[in-house]
Design goal:
By secondary structure, the chain is α+β, with helices and mostly antiparallel strands. Helix content is 19%, strand content 32%. The chain has seven helices and 18 strands. Strands 1, 2, 3, 4, 5, 6, 7, 10, 11, 13 and 16 form an eleven-stranded mixed beta sheet that branches. It has a five-stranded mixed beta sheet with strand order 8-18-17-14-15, with no helix packed on it. A two-stranded antiparallel ribbon has the order 9-12. A hairpin with a 2-residue loop joins strand 14 (216-221) and strand 15 (224-230).
Length: 301
Amino acid sequence: MKLLTFMLGGTYRLGVKKEQGVLDVLAALSVVPSEKTIPTSIQEVIAGGAEALNELRIYSNQVVAAVNDTTAYVREESTLDLGPCVTHPNKIICVGLNYRRHAEETGAQIPRYPILFNKFNNTITGHGDDIPLPKVSEKVDYEAELAIVIGKTAKSISKDEALDYVLGYCNANDLSARDLQVRTQQWLLGKSCDKFAPIGPYLVTADEIANPNDLEIKTYVNGEVRQQSNTSDMIFHCDEIVSYISQHMTLVPGDIILTGTPEGVVLGYPPEKQVYLKDGDIVSIEIEKLGTLTNRMISES
């Protein structure tokens, strides 16, 4: 199932992408009520776990065939103001230097353990939103990343069971102000500017992704391919990452893990060829089976 959020009436609504369009769950329930408890927000899906997800799946399949005219609750995706596919994560945990060729292009040693840092909720935004380029930086870079969304509380879990705790996956752009990132030994400042973690457009449930460690991943800037790789180049794969983090902190439903970026970032170019993001640039992140996440960069007002 492909889940999304969209803004309507000042609040985020839950949508399910179907062949006919996007099912507006709340609108559908007003036309085709259910005796079951059907989640109407992405947070209710996350909190409800497997049972809520299953009820939503059954209802969404039934309701598009329930009546001849579905215009009251099936919406055209292109007309929607999409939000982040997870709106209120508890934690946003990121893995640095996790693609072999990316570590090589930056001249870094291959890590022995996952390099972890974090972002905050101020960085979360959705597909189609404009991203302000902060006035305090001249070197904003793109980073295509596969994001893992946790579906069950996980503490000290093994690698073998780790993917059972995953609700789904989505595209992410780990935008990075490189000049701020390297100002000190801590990367946090360069990673946590406003809207520096767009995610989406969909949260694709784990059952649709047979192997997250074998997905094509690309970045386009103004239509030009800048990154092109596969998640198989990860140093630490998705199951290893989830297990490793869970040994050190409890993961809870809705937590987001950004799993690292492949080669092709601006920072990896020779200094004379480094052209960082500028006002008007359109950046698209495309991961196999997850759709395309697109945002425009704008000068901070």
